[in-house]
Amino acid sequence: MYLKALELTGFKSFANKTIVEFDDGITSIVGPNGSGKSNILDAILWVLGEQSYKNIRAKESSDIIFSGGKNKKPKSMAEVSLIIDNEDRYLDVDFSEVKITRRIFKTGENEYLINNRKSRLKDIHNLFMDTGIGKQAYSIIGQGRVERIIGSSPKELKEIIEEAAGVKRAKIEKDESEKKLQDLKNEIEKIDYVEKDLKQRVDYLKGEQEKAKLFKEYSKKINIQRFMVLEYDVNEKTSLKYEYEEKSQEVKEELEKNEKSFSGKQAELEKTNEIRVKLQENLESQKNRRNKNFENLEILKEKYSKLMNQNSNLETEANEKAKRKGILEKDIEEKEKILNDSRNELELITKDLTEKEQEKTELEVKVKDVKKKRDEIALELKERIQKNSDFEVDKIKVAGENEDLEKRVFGAKNENKRQIAEKMDLEAEFDKISQEKKAYEVEKSEKEKQKLEREQKIQKLNEKTDELRKEYSKINRGKNEISYKLENYKVRQKAIANAIEKNETFNQSVKHILNEKIDGVIGAFVNLIDVPSGFEEAVQTLSGGMFRDIVVKDSEIGKKCIEILKRKKLGRASFLPIENIRVSKMNETLPIIDKTLHQGDFQNKMSKEEIQNIILNTNGENGIIDFARNIVKVDAKFVDKNIKKVIQFVYGNSIVVENLKVGTELLKNGFNDRIVTLEGDIITSRGRMTGGHSFKGKDEILERKKELKRLEAEIETNRENFDKFKKKLSEVVLEAEKAEKEKEEKEKLFENFKNNYQSFNNNYDDFSVKFIRKQREINTLNYEISESGKFILEKETKIKENLKLIQNIEKCIKENNLKMKNLNEELKKLENIDEFVQKLNVADKEYEVLKVKTDNNKNRFREIEIDYKKLLSEKAELIEFEKKKELFGSELIDKISNMKSEIKANEKSKVNILKEIQEIEAKIQEVEGSERKLIAEIKEIEMNILKSKNEYEKIIEKITRNESELEFKTSEFKELENDEIFNDEEYFEIISEEELAATKRKLSLNERNRINIGPVNMASIEEYEHENERYQNIVAQKRDLFESRESLLGFIREIEEEVTSKFFMAYEQINKNFQYMCETILNGAKGIIKMTDPENVLTTGLELSVKYKNKPEQTLLLLSGGEKSMLAVSFIMAIFMFRPSPFTFFDEIEAALDEKNTKKIIELLHQFINKSQFILITHNKETMKGSHRLYGVTMNKEIGETKIVSVDV
User: Fold this and answer.
1) CA 861 and chain centroid, separation
2) Residue 62 CA: distances (Å) to CA of 41, 59, 267, 1056, 1195
3) Rounded Cα distance, 658 and 626, in Å
4) Which residues pair with residue 1173 across a beta bridge?
5) What are residue 35's DSSP bridge partners?
6) Which among 976, 791, 935 has a CA at the least distance from the CA of 220?
7) Measured distance CA(753)–CA(757) in Å, rounded
8) Which of 650, 656, 1097, 1145 has the greatest number of beta carbons closer than 10 A?
9) Where are the alpha helices (DSSP H) in 544-604?
């Protein structure tokens, strides 16, 4: 590879296109000072990518472009091209010739080209990387660069050798990898934060999940055990059900038998009752006969009496009456006796009934009292027996405890004596160690103070570094977020702008006319105006269809457009020709309304920006905002198109108001144009109102324009924020580097201090261990002695308390035994309760029988009493007759005789009737006896029925309760029943009470364990799975990031190894070459390139050192100009010997050399011409002599233009 030519156009003093061709060997460029020779080297540096204007001797970009002169116009751009022969493919491109071009325009814009194709500066850097060619490479040495090499910092010298070593690309890759590594670290920091937060959540949920799983496990066991218990209970209840049903059947049969018997006896009683009723009816009938007979007799006697009166046979009648009177007296006497007997019998029975009732009540009370007393005594006896048992157990326990305590107290006293003796020995030894410790502590305090001060300083620096690192990450994140937002906003802005520009939202006809770009067509009305935010609804309503009208210059253009639409059949469109539209007279002043209406309600419905716009555009009062034509503005791009006239035409004197209240009030005041509210409700001049909810919504173009404005504002805000973040980032980086450097210095000093401090600390720690051990032994003994004393005192006190307790227990046992004896005696005195129950049952039965008997006797007594009263009445009548017998005559003797016979017959009949009555009464008494017997039997059967019913009801109650429990347990059982339980290894069928009790114990334990778990979140199982999956993903991401980091670190290590290896190899070879060059061209001087930090090849710098013969070693800065130049050339040639550059530029490197040394340099260059081209800018004749080609440079001072002339050698 070699340089074929250099082309310059408009670069600095090269106004016209200038081509400098180069051959093999040495090419020298000569000319007077100020002719523009060095501009050639500046051009080469510039085309290779130099960004610093200072390095190419310019202040700003305009200094690079030819600025013109007398009769010579300035150039609008500068261009430089390097043409390189690449037949050997030295450059990694598949071209035999490579042309590198750079252009700059007056705007400051740069262009880079490779073989006339646009490229990036980075592509040019990459092309020449590690070739020795570049703006900072050793192949280009500009004016003053020789001296600068000597004065270069160790780092700069190293960079020159790194270029020769070919590690620059590797270092750039390393820097890029480190940048990626930093990005990875930032990403790891972010993911660390997320992971930490998520881990806390996962750890918490894990605990909750474990609780939930444990709860679930216990619940499963509980369900199995409950199922087993329920299964057993269901089986038991089912068995009981059959048992109860069998028992109920037996009781039911017994009850039915008793009821049947009861029915039979009841029927028999009813039959007997019927017989008694019939007999009583017969008796009543006979009594009626008797009474009738009595009545007949009375009539007959009355007639007889009359007859006797008539025939004066009063004596006979009197005798009869006397006779009847005797009979009546006898009957009355008998009836009175019967009545008295019945009364006495009734009184006796009533008395017996009362006594029996009292006896029954007393027996009931006594049974209840005796039973209660007996139960109380039995319960108390049981409690006292248990108490005695408890007292005896307590007594044995306390006695055993005392025996144990006495043994322990004896042992403790012996141990206490030994400990006191040991303590005295230890205290004497400890006093001696304490004195030594005080001296150590004074020294330690001083060292710790120093250590703390140093640590605090380093800590502050660490904190500062960490804060800066965090701030860097935070700012970087903010910068990235803003960058993302900015790009997003730009994309959206571009999309909306394109849509508006391409008229996407219009119909076919409008879109076609607008896209045709017809001369005189200005645009759609909506695109020509700017509607402030907040007024869209009002303006859109007022505009109506004119929003999408096409504004044209005049009517001719409008006609032309209409013809196009007709010809192409694209539909219809409306046009607004500016020159032809007529605008009505515009009102200058806003109307006024006196009435103050509620205002500002729009503020609750709009954004802050919209509210602000409305306030700014309000020029009226009391809810009147302004004329619509004043609110709608002309878009900035069309201010010169007289769009204002179109706005006046469209909106005229229409007014925008806050709401309909204001609008209607304005109409009342006589305003005669359209009124529109902020919400788009409209009132015409004639009062027509239109409003409500619009389904159409806001105009799409208006919305897009509004969004475009918002995006532009957002982009500007975010761009400013982005610049602020960049600036902050740079400040943080500088501050962090400064802090890091200071920290390293402090840490180095602190490391030395730490080594000394550590040695002292080791000694102090050994001594402290010894001191603490002794102190601990004494403290332990003190504690043991103290505890031993407390133990002895405590146990002796406990022994005394226990002895007292034993005495109290014995006293309690004695008192309890005495009480038990009294209770047993009292229990014996109580009568047997069963005897009282039996007596009560007998009394109850006798009471019922007596009650029935009493009722019967009462009825009979009433009947006898009635008969007795009738007899008394008849006797009274006879007595009355005797008084009147003297009044009767003796007229009807025959009738008397007949009547007498009739009376005798009636009396005979009467005797018969009375006889029958007595027989019936006897039968009634016999039947009543049978009834009483039946009643007693029925009462007994009723008692049996009642008992059977009670028993049956109890069994039914048991059955009901059992069925209810069975149903409930069966329901629970069915709920729990599933195949999982049957298949579980813990399940088995309970067949005994022991197994049931064991299962219930397990169930109770599991339920307690489940309760002890505490509150349980069952959802945590799924939550944990979900969150853990997220966590694992984060961990996997982090792992991937760590792997990437390790991969990058490995790659960086490989690069470092490669850089170290290549650099070290280059350094060693170049160092040998430098020693050789110094010895050769510096007359035996000893030169060496030293590493500033040989232990660390990656960070080490390089220093040049030289010692001339017969001269003391001195600093390079004290060398003469010639010595410096020769030393610099030696250094450059040493590099060339290692890796010659394909072409090399030197600008007056021999300026400080004498003729002899210049010849040496030229001779040296000749040794390398087969490996490299040399282009020299020089004034030196010796250099010119040694060149293979010469170019002369001249300048026209009037116009400041440089020209190049080829000179024959």
Assistant:
1) 98
2) 18, 8, 146, 42, 20
3) 10
4) 1143
5) none
6) 976
7) 6
8) 656
9) 555-568
Which amino acid would we find at residue 446?
E
Give the model's pLDDT for residue 101. 93
What's the mean pLDDT in 702-723? 77
CA of 81: how far to CAs of 8, 20, 41, 898, in Å?
Answer: 7, 10, 12, 194
DSSP 1084: S
Asked whether residue 655 carries a pLDDT value surpassing 90, the answer given is yes
Is the Cα torsion angle 541, 545, 548, 549 positive or negative in sign? negative
Both tokens assigned to 1025: 């799975």
| pLDDT number for residue 695 | 45
Question: How many other CB atoms are found less than 10 A from the CB of residue 931?
Answer: 20
The pLDDT of 995-1024, averaged and rounded, is 80
Please choose, from the candidates 370, 373, 367, the residue with its C-alpha nearest in 3D space to the C-alpha of residue 836: 367
Query: Please, which residues have CB within 8 angstroms of residue 749's CB and are 6 or more apart in sequence?
Result: 454
| Contacts of residue 935, Cβ cutoff 8 Å, sequence gap at least 6 | 269, 848, 849, 852
Task: List b or e across 810-819, with b for residues whose CB sees 16 or more CB atoms inside 10 angstroms.
Answer: eebeeebeee
683 pairs with which residues across the strands?
Answer: 675, 689
Distance in angstroms (rounded) separating the CA atoms of residues 218 and 522: 83
Taking each helix axis from N to C end, the angle separating 893-976 and 168-310, rounded to the nearest 10 degrees, works out to 170
Q: What is the dihedral of CA 150, 152, 155, 156, to 10 degrees?
A: -100
Output phi, psi for 5, to 5 deg.
Answer: -160, 165
Kindly indicate the confidence band of residue 1193, based on its pLDDT and cuts at 50, 70 and 90. confident
Of 1202, 1136, 1198, the residue nearest 1170 (C-alpha)? 1136
Rg of the Cα atoms in the chain: 69
Decide: pTM greater than 0.90: no
Provide the pLDDT confidence category of residue 676 given band limits of 50, 70 and 90.
Answer: very high
Query: Exposed, middle or buried: residue 1086 (CB in 10 Å: 0-12, 13-18, 19+)?
Result: middle
Three-state DSSP at 684 gives coil
Mean pLDDT of 71-83: 87
Is residue 81 pLDDT above 90, yes or no? yes
State the Cα–Cα distance between residues 935 and 929, nearest whole angstrom. Answer: 10
The torsion of the CA quartet 1058, 1060, 1062, 1064, rounded to 10 degrees, works out to -160
Local confidence band at 551 (pLDDT 50, 70, 90 cut-offs):
very high
Phi-psi region of 811 (alpha: psi -120 to 50; beta: other; left: phi over 0): alpha
Structure tokens at 1185: 């002599």
**Cα–Cα distance measured from residue 278 to residue 927, given in angstroms and rounded to the nearest whole number:** 11
Which residues are 1090's β-sheet partners?
Answer: 1103
Distance CA 849, CA 931 (A): 10
Mean pLDDT of 604-632: 85
Rounded Cα distance, 1012 and 1002, in Å: 15
DSSP readout, 1137-1167? Answer: HHS--SEEEEESTTTT--HHHHHHHHHHHHT
Quote the CA–CA distance of 566 and 552 in Å, as a whole number: 18
Give the pLDDT band of residue 151 (cuts 50, 70, 90).
Answer: low
What lies within 8 Å, CB to CB, of 1055 at 6+ separation is 170, 171, 173, 174, 177
Q: For residue range 165-212, list pLDDT tens digits in order.
A: 777 777 777 788 888 888 877 777 767 766 776 787 788 778 888 888
Report CA dihedral (477, 480, 485, 490) to the nearest 10 degrees: 170
Cβ partners under 8 Å of residue 695, min gap 6? none
